[in-house]
Design brief:
The chain has about 110 residues and is an alpha+beta fold. It has one domain. It contains one helix and six strands, in the order E-E-E-E-E-E-H. The chain has one helix at about 80-105; strands spanning about 5-15, 15-25, 30-40, 45-50, 60-65, 70-75. A hairpin with a 2-residue loop joins strand 3 (about 30-40) and strand 4. It is globular and about 45 Å long.
Length: about 110
């Protein structure tokens, strides 16, 4: 039997902002993760920044209000380290990311 451990939660980080977390661990090693910072505009939640291991590598997706996505691979391909980095980045820099996300709103 595989000892997969799935951890999933959402926490509020601002008045209209949340951090969504999902990871799957096998024998102490992260085998998949997706963490995302989302902001609420007019009663709708929008993903702003997402770090995940979809496509088999750790990367960051930077989104804007128009739905454009900029994908950046993470140099650190150890998923445990990449997840720690991603979590710290989102929780420390979400306000900066929100600014960039909203900049395109009025174009």
């Amino acid at each position: 039997m595989m000892s997969n451990k799935k951890v999933e939660y959402v926490i509020r980080i601002g008045r209209s902002d949340r951090y969504r977390h999902l990871h799957i661990q096998e024998k102490g090693k992260i085998v998949f993760f997706r963490v995302q910072y989302e902001t609420k505009i007019d009663d709708m939640w929008y993903p702003v920044v997402r770090y995940d291991t979809a496509h088999g590598f750790a990367h960051r997706d930077l989104l804007n209000i128009k739905g454009d996505v900029k994908k950046t691979p993470l140099f650190n391909q150890d998923f445990n380290d990449a997840l720690t980095f991603a979590e710290n980045d989102l929780k420390s820099n979400w306000e900066y990311y929100k600014e960039g996300f909203l900049e395109k709103k009025d174009e």
